[in-house]
Specification:
By secondary structure, the chain is of the alpha+beta class. Helices cover 36% and strands 26% of the residues. An eight-stranded mixed β-sheet has the order 10-14-15-22-19-18-16-17.
């Protein structure tokens, strides 16, 4: 099991949440506590303070936590009658609601010194084991993550078993902040965000070039696999979303509009549009598997407190694919998709791919029998591909189980990107069919798949993974022509024109800066290749190639440069 999810680390994180609440109650006794769980990253506590906390309040809270940790206060847990719990929390409506929702006559109560909290249990022995923590953020939240409920504040942090683990984490964070994609996006003129559209990215020419290259690269792979690319409307009648189940399961994350007294929804997902394309005419078994691809722009109404650059936005593009196939083809289609995902990630140097199989969630549509069939199909495909995987119980989509692909970047962080989902429910809800070789009608299975997942998020991951130094084939500007004096300008123009004619992304440095200044500018722009031209190069009809890391090659002819560029592009060399 991944260490991030081991019982020991989750117990440590859960206990740290209690320590945080304890410190807050001592410093700000009028604060009302709600819930404080362990998470995949660390821990948090959602609070209702009398006055909103500010970033600077994290310092005294952390100091008080350290004081409590130094006291080695024992953590204990016991069961108490609900009536006793209601008296303890008579002035806390959140805890009273939780007490009422817990089955049985008793509830758990955790205690450390004079602090207590409603809790199922699972703690470290004493507070002295919790001293290696760090409070990270204050953000907005809502009670039970529902915008219709009381707004709250969330304090989040991390905790580790040893001081060395905490120090290593802080070093990783320092490095991650140095190469934060939001900072790089601004420095490299890739994208921006504006108050006029919070959570909606604005792609500049450089950033749009990268996104287009990513999409075109996937398109080449999809062509080999006989996909047909479609495009469906971004806004559709709300009745479609009710039929698909998205309205019941996802409406709090959807945007709505009214046209001629009819309610419409901006799509949060692309699948219903694909289904309408499938239903446009009768389908034959000869057409299956029918693979429809769509780079669909979707909108989701995310809370402002969770927006985070390109990693969490309100509008993004999914490199979606929907495969309609006979049940006996599921394994082949999922297997082929697994192979496609692994090939794609390998191009970027992501060779450590962790795979999870997410099973039926509580809010699932459809029968247990269909879910089991879908889950078994995914298992068989994974086993056929000879890839290790772990089960994530209850983490599937509401319409079907899914495979998740988690990649590890150059800083050791993992990111969930590609997914494959088997769906028996949507074909049932939309009465999809195909005519068999015997002339009978049968129900197809629908496979949802994405390789990058969110194009925007994957772009952000790449920027941080490469620390802004995108590989030659992906860089928005691949080469920059630098002249030592104006006398080389005519030769530079000829070289520029020739390289552009061969399809390379080249710019000319037209500034009057000295060569050292031009090189520094190109390095700051993270241009992979600098083509330096002086009197010697003009006289010999050659080029000096300076790489991003400072290495140089002298006396290259245009043909040699083109051969080298073709090799870098073909082999995806970084």
């Amino acid at each position: 099991m991944d260490n991030n999810y081991s019982d020991a680390i989750m117990t440590l994180r859960h206990s740290a949440a209690h320590l945080l609440a304890h410190a807050v109650k001592e410093l700000y006794p009028e604060t009302i506590l709600t819930i404080g769980p362990a998470t995949k990253e660390g821990f948090f506590y959602d609070l209702l303070p009398k006055q909103n906390f500010k970033e600077e309040d994290l310092v005294p809270i952390a100091e008080r936590m350290q004081e409590l940790a130094a006291k080695n206060i024992p953590l204990t847990h016991r069961q108490i009658p609900k009536e006793e719990a209601r008296k303890l929390y008579a002035n806390n409506p959140f805890k009273l609601e939780l007490i009422n929702d817990i089955p049985g006559d008793n509830v758990g109560l955790a205690e450390q010194g004079d602090f207590y909290d409603l809790c199922r249990g699972g703690h470290v022995a004493h507070t002295g084991l919790l001293k290696n923590f760090k409070l990270c953020t204050i953000s907005g939240s809502y009670w039970r993550a529902d915008r219709e409920n009381q707004p709250l504040q969330r304090i989040a942090g991390v905790v580790f078993a040893t001081a060395d683990d905490l120090k290593a984490y802080e070093q990783r964070i320092e490095e991650a902040q140095k190469y934060d994609h939001r900072r790089l996006g601004k420095q490299l003129d890739m994208f921006s965000f504006h108050d006029e559209g919070p959570g909606f990215p604005f792609f500049h020419a450089n950033g749009k070039t990268v996104v287009k290259i990513l999409a075109d690269d996937i398109r080449k792979e999809l062509t080999k696999l006989d996909y047909q690319e479609i495009e469906t409307p971004i806004m559709l009648n709300v009745e479609l979303w009710k039929q698909s189940g998205h309205y019941d399961h996802y409406k709090e994350n959807m945007y709505f509009s009214e046209i001629e007294k009819q309610q419409y929804a901006i799509r949060p997902m692309n699948c219903p549009g694909s289904i309408l394309v499938y239903k446009e005419r009768p389908r034959s078994y000869r057409e299956l598997p029918l693979r429809l691809a769509e780079f669909g722009h979707v909108h989701r109404n995310e809370l402002s407190g969770v927006l985070h650059g390109l990693f969490r936005v309100r509008a993004f593009t999914q490199d979606d694919g929907h495969i309609y196939c006979a049940p006996e083809s599921i394994e082949d289609e999922v297997f082929n998709t697994i192979e496609l995902v692994n090939r794609t990630f390998a191009k970027f140097g992501f060779h450590e791919v962790k795979i999870y199989l997410s099973t039926k969630p509580k809010n699932a549509m459809g029968s247990d029998e269909l879910w089991q069939k879908a889950t078994d199909a995914l298992k068989h495909a994974l086993e056929r591909a000879h890839v290790p995987y772990e089960i994530q119980e209850g983490e599937g989509a509401f319409y079907g189980p899914k495979i998740e692909f988690h990649i590890k970047d150059s800083m050791g962080r993992t990111w969930q990107c590609g997914t494959v989902q088997v769906d028996f429910n949507q074909p049932e809800r939309f009465d999809l069919s195909y005519v068999t070789s015997a002339g009978t009608k049968e129900r197809p299975v629908m496979i949802h798949r994405a390789i990058y997942g969110s194009m925007e998020r994957f772009f952000g991951v790449l920027l941080e993974h490469f620390k802004g130094n995108l590989p030659f084939w992906l860089a928005p500007v691949q080469m920059k022509v630098l002249t030592i004096t104006d006398e080389q300008k005519p030769y530079a123009q000829e070289l520029y024109t020739a390289l552009r004619a061969h399809g390379y992304r080249v710019v000319m440095d037209e500034s009057s800066d000295p060569l050292a200044g031009k090189i520094k500018t190109a390095q700051l722009e993270r241009v992979p290749w600098m083509l330096v031209l002086g009197a010697k190069e003009v006289a010999q009809n050659t080029i000096t190639l300076r790489y991003r890391d400072g290495k140089q090659e002298f006396g290259l002819s245009l043909d040699q440069l083109l051969a080298k560029a073709a090799d870098y592009t073909k082999n995806y060399t970084i």
